[in-house]
Structure formats: structure tokens, C-alpha cells
Amino acid sequence: MSDPFLADSPDASPDASPDAFPDAFPALARGMDRKMLSGWMARGRAWFSRIQSRKKRGHRRRQDAAERRAVTISEIVGQDAQETFARRIAYLRKLDPLVFEEMVLDAFQKKGWIVQRNTHYTGDGGIDGRIFRDGNWCGIQCKRYKGAIQTSHVQKFAEDLRNEKLNQGFFVHTGRTPGSVQRRPETIKLISGQKLIQLLEGE
What we know:
Elements: H1 4-7, H2 24-54, H3 57-74, H4 81-92, H5 97-110, E1 114-117, E2 129-133, E3 136-143, H6 151-163, E4 168-173, H7 179-182, E5 188-191, H8 193-200
Parallel strand pairs: 3-4, 4-5
Antiparallel strand pairs: 1-2, 2-3
């Protein structure tokens, strides 16, 4: 069976030798080393941020509460799927905003992302956390809304991403998404409604 790496080269043949590609293999190795190194560094940053945040009583209390609330929301069940969804969203809208933030970060971590937590809560604005996968860091912003989200908040998040030199971000919220927000920068992904519930349930 032909080697897919060699097949990509227009000069490749079944008898081609690695000596015919003196620069390709070291470059490939260097690329793998950089990816592995970035992953190790990301894990180190995530571990350090977790330790530092757990040292603070307010962070520790909300992180512990987030674990309990995640269990509670999974136990909320209505007469049908629509009622279950409505009751779960209503429950999320009543949470402490910082507990909701910790729940979202936990959910991304359970899905395999490396999570770097802030050592200080940003309040209503800024980057609430960073997540890493496939060599890329992304920003997270969490909004516990009851009504429609505001376009200005999404625009401010896009500005925060640029300032932090992040190429992508997830705007996670419990409110409604008006049409004006749908016309947002491509770098921002919205997570709300059923997608939010699925995220928190680990789907």
C-alpha cells in the first residue's frame, strides 16, 4: 500500500527513499515537537490556574457549587422534552453568574478541552476563561441572561479577543439570540438554548 505522505509528492514513486526528501522529515518532526510542546505548556498553564484559583475561598466555593448544580440540572425532568428544556433553562437563569461560569468551564473540560481559569473573576465583561485544543487557544465569555442578549456585548467580546490575541471565542449565554446578533464576527461561536443544555450534559 502506498505511503500517503509520498503520494502527495508529484515526484514520488513506490521505490522512493527518505533520502529523496532531505528537508521534509526534519520539518515534520519539528512540527510534531512544536505541537507536543504547546500541548504540554497548555496543560501546565491549566494546572497552575486551577491551583491558584482553588486557593481563593470565593473561587473554591463557586467551583464546588458548580459541581453540585451540574448534578441538579441533570435531575430536572419535565413531562416531555420541551418542558424539560424550559425548566432547565429557567434554573440556569437563576444561578449565581459566577457559578454558571464555572459550570461552563467544567463542561468544556469534560469534553476534552484544556481549561485555563482566571485567578480573578472579570465581572460583567472580559474573558472569563481560556480553552485549548488542537494547538489553539480560544476565549470564553459567559452571560446569564433572562432576556435577549445585546449586540454590544458580543462586539465587546470580539474586541477582547483581539486584545488578547485569541483567534476564536465562545459566547455562552442563557438568554434569547436576536437576529442582529446572528450577524456577528465569524471568530465568535454562540452557545445557547439546546446547545447549552447539551454542553452541560456532556453531549
